[in-house]
Amino acid sequence: DRLTGSDASDLERAAEAALRPRRLDEFVGQRVVRDQLSLVLDAAIGRGSSPDHVLLSGPPGLGKTTLAMIIAAELGASLRVTSGPAIQHAGDLAAVLSSLDEGEVLFIDEIHRLARPAEELLYVAMEDFRVDVVVGKGAGASAIPLTLPRFTVVGATTRAGLLPAPLRDRFGFTGHLDFYSSDELERVLTRSAGLLGSALQPQAASELASRSRGTPRIANRLLRRVRDWAEVRGDGSMDLRAARAALEVYEVDDLGLDRLDRAVLRALCTRFAGGPVGLTTLAVTVGEEPETVETVAEPFLVREGLMGRTPRGRVATPAAWAHLGLTPPADGAT
Ligand code: ADP
């Protein structure tokens, strides 16, 4: 529904799969994380053992799942995928853990959303490669300790700060993914266009890159819409005209802001005189979950210098007023 929302629908996951880099050297940008990770992996491969557990943090759509898949591929290991919300009970996690094979990589997306009992079971398993399987019920229940083979957890979170310290400490390596530069997104786009079998003209690549909110998922999504436009309304070539026209159809503005971003900024300026206002109040005003506003809209608005975070709440910056074409109140409440 949202063209520039950073989360992927199930349908989109299929389209994304075709564009995913398979190896570390195909992964564009994030040089620091890539270097560090390649060292961790090469060392483990050299020793013939499993690497430390890896935590990847950063906003949605920046490549956490892709990196988890790459880690497994580089290790020549198979990958198991689950997520915090998918694990309802500690028992569900115990079942996943006790079925792992030696050397497997277990990817846990949204690991900050694991329920507490599952989380506790996980950090014991990560540290001691052991899980207590509870047999029976009530007073007759007993815990049977089960030794697990060596495995590697790759956890992904949009909010590393939310992870309790005992869990965070079990990760030997934490990589923080940051928004991509326009140059990097141009490389992502050109690579993707090649995989789609169409040529993307450099000016079009540059236009799309600068309006993709620093996020490869959004860049690839815009690319597919430009291809649609070029095929249906244009002459088939993905040039600047097609790029601009498609961006206009989908209401992506010149900074790459979409409807939610603009709604958040507009509410901040017009309903709260530029703030400060608490995150929850702001989210309710635009009809969104606070978590969506905090993890999807806010990081980008802050990075673009349109929103500030203060101890008393979110504030609109002068650039936000200017971007919306509004005049800040005369008392300087910006
Ligand atoms: P996350 O798990 O952080 O939400 P994903 O790993 O699912 O993000 O990435 C979203 C899409 O963006 C994938 O389809 C992938 O093809 C693309 N992508 C992400 N990072 C890169 C990158 N560094 N180079 C090329 N493509 C990327």
From TrEMBL:
Keyword Nucleotide-binding: yes
Residues reported in the UniProt entry to bind ATP: L19, R20, G61, K64, T65, T66, E127, D128, F129, R170, Y180, R217
Residues that, per the record, bind DNA: R309, R314
Subcellular locations according to the entry: Cytoplasm
Binding site for Mg(2+): T65
SUPFAM superfamilies hit by this protein: P-loop containing nucleoside triphosphate hydrolases (SSF52540), Winged helix' DNA-binding domain (SSF46785)
UniProt KW keywords: ATP-binding, Cytoplasm, DNA damage, DNA recombination, DNA repair, DNA-binding, Helicase, Hydrolase, Nucleotide-binding
Family matches, as InterPro entries: AAA+_ATPase (IPR003593), AAA_lid_4 (IPR041445), DNA_helicase_Holl-junc_RuvB (IPR004605), P-loop_NTPase (IPR027417), RuvB-like_N (IPR008824), RuvB_wg_C (IPR008823), WH-like_DNA-bd_sf (IPR036388), WH_DNA-bd_sf (IPR036390)
Region: Head domain (RuvB-H), residue numbers: 254-334
EC assignment: 3.6.4.-
Record field: catalytic activity: ATP + H2O = ADP + phosphate + H(+)
GO MF terms, alphabetically ordered: ATP binding; ATP hydrolysis activity; four-way junction DNA binding; four-way junction helicase activity
Gene Ontology cellular-component annotations: cytoplasm; Holliday junction resolvase complex
Domain AAA+ ATPase: residue ranges: 50-183
A Pfam family hit: RuvB_N
Biological process, per Gene Ontology: DNA recombination; DNA repair
Region: Small ATPAse domain (RuvB-S), residue numbers: 181-251
Record region (Large ATPase domain (RuvB-L)): 1-180
Swiss-Prot/TrEMBL domain comment: Has 3 domains, the large (RuvB-L) and small ATPase (RuvB-S) domains and the C-terminal head (RuvB-H) domain. The head domain binds DNA, while the ATPase domains jointly bind ATP, ADP or are empty depending on the state of the subunit in the translocation cycle. During a single DNA translocation step the structure of each domain remains the same, but their relative positions change.
UniProt similarity note: Belongs to the RuvB family.
Subunit organization: Homohexamer. Forms an RuvA(8)-RuvB(12)-Holliday junction (HJ) complex. HJ DNA is sandwiched between 2 RuvA tetramers; dsDNA enters through RuvA and exits via RuvB. An RuvB hexamer assembles on each DNA strand where it exits the tetramer. Each RuvB hexamer is contacted by two RuvA subunits (via domain III) on 2 adjacent RuvB subunits; this complex drives branch migration. In the full resolvosome a probable DNA-RuvA(4)-RuvB(12)-RuvC(2) complex forms which resolves the HJ.
Functional note: The RuvA-RuvB-RuvC complex processes Holliday junction (HJ) DNA during genetic recombination and DNA repair, while the RuvA-RuvB complex plays an important role in the rescue of blocked DNA replication forks via replication fork reversal (RFR). RuvA specifically binds to HJ cruciform DNA, conferring on it an open structure. The RuvB hexamer acts as an ATP-dependent pump, pulling dsDNA into and through the RuvAB complex. RuvB forms 2 homohexamers on either side of HJ DNA bound by 1 or 2 RuvA tetramers; 4 subunits per hexamer contact DNA at a time.
UniProt-recorded name of the protein: Holliday junction branch migration complex subunit RuvB
Source organism of the structure: Sanguibacter keddieii (strain ATCC 51767 / DSM 10542 / NCFB 3025 / ST-74)
Native organism taxonomy: Bacteria, Bacillati, Actinomycetota, Actinomycetes, Micrococcales
